[in-house]
Amino acid sequence: MGSDNTAGPESVDFAKRAIADAEAKKIQSESDLNDGQNRANHSSAKTGALALGAIGVVFGDIGTSPLYALKEAFTEESHIMTVDRINVFGVCSLAFWSLVIIISIKYLLFVMRADNDGEGGILALTSLVIPKNISAAKRAGILVALGVFGTALLYGDGIITPAISVLSAVEGLGEVSSSFDAWVIPIAIAILLGLFLVQKRGTGAVGKVFGPVMMLWFFTLALLGLSKIIPDPGIIASVNPFYAIQYFTHESGKAFLSLGSIFLVVTGGEALYADMGHFGRRPITVGWYAIVLPALLLNYWGQGAFLLTHPEDIESVFFRMAPAPLLLPLVLLATFATVIASQALISGVFSLTAQAVQLDYLPRIEIRHTSQEHFGQIYVPLVNWALMIACIGLVLGFRSSSNLAAAYGIAVTLTMAITTLIFFRVLRDRWGWSKGKSVLLCFPLLIIEMGFLGANIIKIPHGGWFALAIGALLTIQMQTWRRGRALVAERIHRGEREIVEVLDEKDDIKRVAGTAVFLFKDLGKAPPALVNNLRHNKVLHNTTLIVAVKTSNEPRVSAQRRFEIKKIAPGVFEVGLNFGFMEDPNVNNALGTIKHFGLDFTPEDVTYFLGHESIIAGKVPGMNPLQEHLFVWLNRGADSASRFFRLPIDRVIEVGTRVEI
Predict the structure, then answer these.
(1) 370 closest CA partner among 565, 160, 207
(2) Is the dihedral of CA 436, 442, 443, 445 positive or negative?
(3) Can you count the helices (H) and strands (E) in the chain?
């Protein structure tokens, strides 16, 4: 019998299904590949957009240093240097290595990896080394105090930077015509007013406008530098550190003092770290290596090459590099750039303020979130107007960028040195580095920064005192507030009783419809407002929540860790609400998302009971009398708890308590 090679219907159907499955898999594979490519393209586009925003906000301070850094290195009154080949090559070499070591290596390669869930800045870094147990916390007290002082110093820097940046640019009008000299101060003040008035639009919106302008600025820096380097490319040899060593042997005493001015090339590094929460580490890194660093190096080398042939132009070396017909456009562009330069510090100060409020180093104040997409973009009205008044006061008081240069630098060098010390503990405690490896990284950085600091110390009598005074005053305020809050909590907790004990005593409590929320930090204890309600009204709501709002050392807390719920009696629950120190503590919205068996919560049917402490300075030991009066004054100016926690104002009842400290 011959074999039958004819395929049956089942075989044909199977073959068809196999072909169809293969086609489907191919289509799905292509779809997945396209989806992956789309996600990658979207991620790249988002990074590019954030990098452009970062260029407009984060790099403004460091990007306008070419206006005055090299000039001040030669002309500052305490160390007038000879403009010769050795000194020019030496200054350019120091500028190059300062940018590489301080910004590229210290901040971008290491410190910005020590972010606290995406947030940067010295206070976020400090929160990483605060131990959980009390004994270890006491040992870390010095580091925490240094972190607070470094934070306070950055406020001083946030005042000086807008003033010196704007003045240095507007002074360029004097190169166009001497008739502008009388208008420098009024124009600078008008520009500062405009800058602070637009802050309420938010960092993201400001960055979108400022980004293209700063791109043009960095392109101009590079072009100006190249125009002088191409005829004399030998200046690029200053990357050799030999020229820096030779510089210190040429005019030794003056060379060391000039470090205080050379340091101006890296001012903005600490603000760059503080602004990380606004844009993220990757966009900042991309912007630095792709645009900012090349433009800065080309301009500094261009200024050096120009000075080798035109040493007499040192007093205004940046503007005299430009051809005469382009001088006025350059001054206008520089003015725009310096306005933007101020944004880096202003945004950084906003971030630091939000962190300090949530960590209980500053009183509650209004903080507005200006972006639905990027949480770190905020606006703090009170800080904005305080900075504006202080900046205008500095312009009126110092009247020139050269005078302000004496006040500039010491706050930043101190903050950078403090950052290195705290980062050492992060390396040891959080990253698990050995002591030797940690010292190998941090000790050279600290030596360099202490050298810069030593050179800046002589500036204290000539204006440096201002930044230190701001830092000292704010440190006292922050420490007073934190100590005062601890004392108030201690006084309130005296005589507290267990919540279970209080409820057990009231067997005949009448239940009323609705939900009552008592905000109280000490779970397990009976809130005074609840005790008073039981004593006077003799009622308890059907659903009663005792809510403690806790601030974590992390910037944000996941939804899974938002709640800690415990039932303590029928209808009575204790709720721990966890927020990160950069989150908006919206209690009403957070409670509305609770899903817990037996807990019937309707946000529209809630009455909030808050304790309101009337603080008075008394004779009870705790703080010295001046600090007591300062704390009482700060407490009166603090934002109300109902507004800070975003409670519906028409459903809040406050119960007063008199507290003597």
Answers:
(1) 207
(2) positive
(3) 28, 8
d(CA 209, CA 415): 30
Instruction: Classify 386 as helix, strand or coil.
Output: helix
Residues 6+ apart with CB under 8 A from 23: none
Residue 261 has pLDDT above 50, yes or no: yes
pLDDT at 218: 95
Say if residues 584 and 369 touch (Cβ distance below 8 Å): yes
311-324 per-position pLDDT tens digit: 999 988 999 999 98
pLDDT value at residue 296:
97
pLDDT band at 618 (very low <50, low <70, confident <90, very high): low
Residue 88 DSSP label:
H
- Contact status, residue 146 vs residue 421, Cβ threshold 8 Å: yes
pLDDT of residue 661: 66
Pick the most confident of 131-145, 475-489, 645-659: 475-489
Q: Are 607 and 651 in contact (CB under 8 A)?
A: yes
Cα separation, 622 vs 407, whole angstroms: 36
pLDDT(357) > 70 = yes
Domain ranges in the chain are: 62-462, 496-660
Which two tokens mark 305?
A: 């090459």
444 Cβ contact list (under 8 Å, min separation 6): none
Task: Burial-class residue 330 by CB neighbours within 10 Å (0-12, 13-18, 19+).
Answer: buried
DSSP β-bridge partners for residue 152 = none
Give the SS3 label for residue 640.
coil
Q: Which residues are bridge partners to 572 per DSSP?
A: 544, 569
Distance CA(228)–CA(216), nearest Å, equals 19
Q: Are strands 539-551 and 510-519 parallel, antiparallel or unpaired?
A: parallel
- Edge to edge, what strands does the sheet with 572-579 contain? 563-569, 572-579, 539-551, 510-519, 606-616, 652-660
CA distance 638 to 18: 72
| φ, ψ dihedrals at 646, nearest 5° | 60, 45
Domain 62-462 architecture:
Up-down Bundle (1.20)
- Dump pLDDT digits (tens) for 20-53: 454 544 444 444 434 444 343 445 666 777 777 7
How far apart CA 530 and CA 570 sit, in angstroms, is 16
Q: Do 613 and 636 touch, CB atoms closer than 8 A?
A: no
10: pLDDT strictly greater than 50? no
Which residues are bridge partners to 369 per DSSP?
378
In the Cβ-directed half-sphere of 560, how many Cα atoms lie within 13 Å?
Answer: 0
Tell which residue, 442, 356, 391, has the closest CA to residue 149.
356
Looking at 152-161, 314-323, 513-522, 598-607, which range is the least confident one? 598-607
List CB contacts of 185: < 8 A, sequence separation 6 or more: 395, 396, 399
Closest CA to 83 of 264, 302, 317: 317
Is residue 490 within 8 A of residue 110, CB to CB? The reply is no
Q: What angle do CA 39, 40, 46 make, to 5 degrees?
A: 85
Model-level pTM? 0.72
